[in-house]
Amino acid sequence: MDLHITTLAERPELEGRMWNMKDLWPEYMMYDPVGWSHMGRIVAEFPEYVLVATEGVAGADVVARGFSVPFELRAKGRGELPATGWDQVLLWAFSDLRHGRTPDTVSAIEITVATSALGNGVSHRMLAAMRANTQRLGFAELVAPVRPNAKHLEAASSIHEYAFRTREADGLPHDPWLRVHVRAGGTVEKVAPASMTVSASVEQWREWTRLPFDTDGPVEVEGALVPVHCEASRGYAVYVEPNVWVRHVI
Predict the structure, then answer these.
(1) Coil, strand or helix: which one is 156?
(2) What is the fold of 3-193+243-249?
(3) Contact (Cβ atoms closer than 8 angstroms) between residue 131 and residue 248
């Protein structure tokens, strides 16, 4: 695949096509309030941390995007990768920007491949490019609250067991996306049990999933890594997504 990866700072004209590329994210994933309010700000305020992959000689067809943010992991009161993962690192990054703190670490936020480019090793190349971009920007460490992409196939399984499950043949992670990170040089470090939270009315969940959401208790939803907790009698349901922290020393 003839792939060209640049930063959005280098090619700002690709922003619209980057947002409009077709992907496989479930609709409910767009309604985490922290992500909803901060993802656009990454593009506006950290364009040098945004990677865009295009295909072809003209480089007009966007086939992948990768977002990352700088933050101060070793600030007072921090030091550990947070249990609230993806949400927390976004809040830290923009708090640090506002208060003029000097970042010491970069966190991956998202690597998304267009449906038209799946199965061509694009995610591997995007991760390698994000590592290289992190180094180019003067950092020695990239961390990632990884969304293990096969966990949804066994939503009832413990994330604490799943995150560290390995293959007998080679000792690499059982999960394909975690395996890509480890092959690239990352180390699976810990679970972020509450990395992202989507809470909404049962009516909204019905609209997003086409499921009834009419009984109290866990509901397995397509694409969700763990069951959604439904309080039908109270009119709402909450999805708390776990991620897995991976650390890349560059």
Answers:
(1) coil
(2) Aminopeptidase (3.40.630)
(3) yes
Place of tokens 């703190």: 101
Whole-number percent of the chain with pLDDT over 70: 99
C-alpha R_g of the chain: 18
Domain positions in the chain are 3-193+243-249
> Computed from CA positions of residues 86, 50, 124, 33, in that sequence, does the dihedral angle turn out positive or negative?
positive
Phi, psi of 81, rounded to the nearest 5 degrees: -65, 130
Task: Give the residue from 121, 141, 156, 245 showing the smallest Cα distance to 193.
Answer: 245
220 Rama sector, left if φ>0, alpha if ψ -120 to 50, beta otherwise: beta
Pseudo-torsion of CA 104, 64, 35, 222, nearest 10°? -130
68 Cβ neighbours under 8 A, 6+ residues apart: 46, 49, 50, 51, 106, 107, 108, 109, 130, 133, 134, 142
Residues in CB range of 63: below 8 A, 6 or more apart: 3, 21, 53, 54, 55, 113, 114, 116, 117, 122
Burial of 123 (0-12, 13-18, 19+ CB in 10 A): buried
pLDDT in tens, 9-57: 999 999 999 999 999 999 999 999 999 999 999 999 999 999 999 997 6
Least trusted range by pLDDT, from 50-64, 75-89, 185-199: 50-64
**Half-sphere CA count of 39, side-chain side, radius 13 A:** 18
**What is the pTM assigned to this prediction?**
0.96
